Amino acid sequence: FHANGQDRKAGVAILISDQIDFKMKAIEKDKEGHYLMVKGSIQEEAITIVNTYAPNIRAPRYLQRILTDIKGETDGNAITVGDFNTSLTSMDRASREKINKATEIRNGTIEKSDLIDIFRTLHPKKSEYTLSRTDHILGHKNNLNKFKSIEIMSSIFADHNGMKLEINQRKRNEKKLTTWRLNNMLLKSKW
């Protein structure tokens, strides 16, 4: 799935392995190539993937607006990815990068939406970057156990490396784990 602008200065794409049983339900994108949302399901479980490329100027405000706009269209199964053109944590921030009001508002929106930076959560001290730490994958904090692994993949075709997120999906045939408890009454000789 892809979206790109007329002048090809911006563009986003979402790649889903053909080995995944993904059923697409809807696609939404903007004309400038900054935003793409794909809604669908994997093994009958709903998922929404949003890829955004924030403009270099006013990136925190742009991201805050996108997250606010899509809040009503997404749920806990949404994953937001992209080049945010801004870092999210102090560890990833260049020493000269200032924290301004727009950055604080954006971080507040992320927090209120219960979103987490999956890479930073799974790798809190790792200093590996795609080009810089402006590329992110955000997911709902309640789904942290679904995120199996995340890694940065090198690329010779683009100025940024890719990010790969593996998601634990329960197979339809797989039985749900349940806790079994012995009824002590069964051990008594008389009931």
Mean pLDDT: 78
**Structural class assignment:** alpha+beta
- The unreliable regions are none
Number of helices: 3
Major sheet details:
6 strands, mixed
Strand order of the largest sheet: 3-4-5-6-8-7
Number of strands: 10
N-to-C SSE string, H for helix and E for strand: EEEEEHEHEHEEE
Distance between the termini: 64 Å
Percent of residues in helices comes to 10-25%
The 3D shape can be described as globular
Tell me what portion of residues adopts beta-strand conformation: 25-35%
Radius of gyration: 20 Å
Please describe the topology of this protein.
Layout: E1 2-4, E2 11-13, E3 22-29, E4 35-42, E5 45-53, H1 59-70, E6 78-83, H2 101-112, E7 115-117, H3 118-122, E8 135-140, E9 147-153, E10 162-167
Helix pairs in contact: 1-2
Descriptive report:
It is a single chain. By secondary structure, this protein is an alpha+beta fold. 15% of the residues lie in helices and 31% in strands. The chain has helices at residues 59-70, 101-112, 118-122; strands at 2-4, 11-13, 22-29, 35-42, 45-53, 78-83, 115-117, 135-140, 147-153, 162-167. Strands 3-4-5-6-8-7 form a six-stranded mixed β-sheet. α1 packs parallel to α2. The longest helix is centred in the middle third of the chain and has 12 residues, at 59-70. The model has no long low-confidence stretch (mean pLDDT 78).
Structure in a nutshell:
The protein has 191 residues and is an alpha+beta fold.
Features:
single chain, 6-stranded mixed beta sheet, 191 residues, alpha+beta
